[in-house]
Amino acid sequence: MHSLETLTCPLKRKFETMVNDTSNHKELSPLLEAMTTPKTKWMPRGYQLDVFKVAMKRNTIAHLDTGAGKTMIAVMIIKEVALSLKKQPSQKKLIIFLAPTRNLVQQQFNVIKENTDLVVDFYHGNNMGNGKKIDERDAVAWEHVTNKNQVLVMTPQILLDTLRKAFIKFEMISLLIMDECHRASGSHPYVNIMKEFYLKAANKPKIFGMTASPVIKKGVRSVEDCEDQIQTLESVLDSVVYALRNRTELENVTPSASERYCYYHPSKFLHAEVKGELKSSRLKFELQLQSKFKDVDKKLRKRLRNDHDKIVYCISELGLLCAYESVKLCIENAPKAVEGCDSFQQSFSKYFHFLEEALSIIGKLLPTGHENILDTGCDYEKMVAAGYISPKLFELLQIFRSFGEATQVLCIIFVERIMTAKVLDIIVKRVADLSHLEASYLTGNAMSANHQNETLESFRSGKVNLLFATDVVEEGIDVPKCSTVIRFDMPKTLRSIVQSRGRARKSDSKFIIMLERENEKQRKHVCDIVQSEHTMMDRAKNRDPNTCVTKPSNLKETETYYVESTGASITADSSISLIHQYCAKLPREKVYTPKPDFKCLQVEGLYECEMTLPPNAKFHTITGPPCKTSRLAKQIVCLEACKKLHQMGALTDHLLLNNEHSSPSVLKSINITKGGPRATLHELCQKMHWPSPNFTSSLVECGDAVDKRTSVNTFECRISLTIPHYGVVELKGDPQADKKTSFDSAALFMLHELERLGKIKIG
């Protein structure tokens, strides 16, 4: 294809001929034999052993290319530490493996489970490895988790939350592994874990970090700047970066994608008229959002502006066809109006009318039957000339067409916006020339965990050929057969370009960056990133790890409130979210969400913040002490409020919301058909974050036991339900003819008992 330009050389020899090459280990050393995994017969390479030996001596950040096997080095360290822990059976210790995304948690869990004999489980988002929701867990449940497992794989936010709630004691952790540890900057959970717990711990765990790009900013300006960024990361993680000086073996066994640029012409269409119409329509409906619910109008106004921005972006970057589909997606994802609230429905109708008008404005510029315009025989250049598709999208389709009839291609297309991924997925599926290729999209938190896993597995297996993705799959996701990676939107940082290129794992793979012709800003940006990477690699390789001294940590401690009885803690910067959670749990109207109100006043150069809680809160107002900034004043007043709520019993000793003080849950009715009472009780327990009830059924023999013909067997069920911060409620139902009906009887008795206790209301 004429618009592609190759930048780098291919591999010296085929990757497939090297992955099983063990010529460097003709005689296995005792250490190598010990590290060889029993399940997969995997054998570490020389450079992996080098990193392993260094990591066992001191806290280490392994700086290795993507695909170099950093996770397997972590597995070696895990096995070595686990072996040493066996010699201390009296002390319960944990190995924690942190990964920043749900997909990475699942992937790393699978690697550890397959390559060790240790008891391991994973936790991410709202799910735990055993299928239960993380919100349902309490101190007793976490005690069971820590006693049962040797290795826990989780997101850093979950570890931070469990440490703050004192469900896991930091002193229990013997080894802390941080995947993609370059994220340790700003207010990331990695930073907060180190600041709030590691620095204060008397017995600190071993740290092992893994990254392909140990710089924490967008790029590096100089060697000195690069060194400063590396030292900052080392300081935060109390570790030393280790990079290979001799990269020969690594380069021989790690596939390297050839880099290319794909140039597209600037769009000749500005679409100024249609953009003007859309803006006028937006302003018209914004002015009409004037209901009595100001919060609702504010949210709808914000959503209207966001949807308008998405549509205009698609017009500029993708063309009118994609913009039309973006409006349809906005309509599909629009919030549902609340029944019984006329004022809200009127506001919602204004927002919805804007989307309908936007669809009409764009639709009148498209030809009749445009849904089938990409059928066989489509003249793509005429489509560009008419403004239906952008030159950028045209070049992307040309790349796809260059794949030919091959169905083995696996290609990831990285985009910046979720809307772009969804729209491109729709459009490509309509292109007749590409009907032999299956497309899908992956967009992180906008998709459920199950949907993400299914999509990723479909891509790995080859059922999906073209995967449009946001940065959710940039880091760490392993797809060995991925043959092409396309940066449809510009990579913004050095980390982004290193990580996304690393997804191209197959030999002779391609990494394509799309650039606009004659756009000097884009060219300079890419050149700066490329230069930054060279500087980073040279600096990391030439550093002497034996002479490197970790800088003292400059992490500033934040004001913290501790609960003596449990060790639970909350910081000033984490207290704001807890106050919002508390307010959200208060009784509410249909469209009104209870929330705190803040007023900051400046007094003699300092700031004082007054917070007002909803009328049905435990207290109404509280004023914090004078602070240097308004942001800090808001944090401190929230911290004081959390302290007061705990003292008043609204927060438990683990600083969780106390359901005992919330209003009873209302059940409209109980389904009394077979299975209905049980289903109602289980749904109630899920809603209230209670453990599932325990049913025990026993056989009861009635009648004349001597004459079996006249005796009758019935079933009697005993039910037990544990209500957090209240206790255990036990009772039994009436005898029934079969076991399942006896369960229903016991569940029905329990529901009425809960109403008597004031825990629920039955309509």
UniProtKB/TrEMBL annotation:
<keyword id="KW-0067">ATP-binding</keyword>
<dbReference type="GO" id="GO:0003723">
    <property type="term" value="F:RNA binding"/>
</dbReference>
<dbReference type="GO" id="GO:0005737">
    <property type="term" value="C:cytoplasm"/>
</dbReference>
<keyword id="KW-0694">RNA-binding</keyword>
<dbReference type="Pfam" id="PF00270">
    <property type="entry name" value="DEAD"/>
</dbReference>
<dbReference type="InterPro" id="IPR005034">
    <property type="entry name" value="Dicer_dimerisation"/>
</dbReference>
<keyword id="KW-0547">Nucleotide-binding</keyword>
<feature type="domain" description="Dicer dsRNA-binding fold">
    <location>
        <begin position="575"/>
        <end position="665"/>
    </location>
</feature>
<dbReference type="Pfam" id="PF03368">
    <property type="entry name" value="Dicer_dimer"/>
</dbReference>
<feature type="domain" description="Helicase ATP-binding">
    <location>
        <begin position="51"/>
        <end position="214"/>
    </location>
</feature>
<dbReference type="GO" id="GO:0005634">
    <property type="term" value="C:nucleus"/>
</dbReference>
<protein>
    <submittedName>
        <fullName>Endoribonuclease Dicer 3</fullName>
    </submittedName>
</protein>
<dbReference type="Pfam" id="PF14709">
    <property type="entry name" value="DND1_DSRM"/>
</dbReference>
<comment type="similarity">
    <text>Belongs to the helicase family. Dicer subfamily.</text>
</comment>
<dbReference type="Pfam" id="PF00271">
    <property type="entry name" value="Helicase_C"/>
</dbReference>
<dbReference type="InterPro" id="IPR001650">
    <property type="entry name" value="Helicase_C-like"/>
</dbReference>
<feature type="domain" description="Helicase C-terminal">
    <location>
        <begin position="395"/>
        <end position="546"/>
    </location>
</feature>
<dbReference type="GO" id="GO:0004525">
    <property type="term" value="F:ribonuclease III activity"/>
</dbReference>
<dbReference type="InterPro" id="IPR011545">
    <property type="entry name" value="DEAD/DEAH_box_helicase_dom"/>
</dbReference>
<dbReference type="InterPro" id="IPR014001">
    <property type="entry name" value="Helicase_ATP-bd"/>
</dbReference>
<dbReference type="GO" id="GO:0030422">
    <property type="term" value="P:siRNA processing"/>
</dbReference>
<keyword id="KW-0378">Hydrolase</keyword>
<dbReference type="GO" id="GO:0005524">
    <property type="term" value="F:ATP binding"/>
</dbReference>
<dbReference type="InterPro" id="IPR038248">
    <property type="entry name" value="Dicer_dimer_sf"/>
</dbReference>
<dbReference type="InterPro" id="IPR027417">
    <property type="entry name" value="P-loop_NTPase"/>
</dbReference>
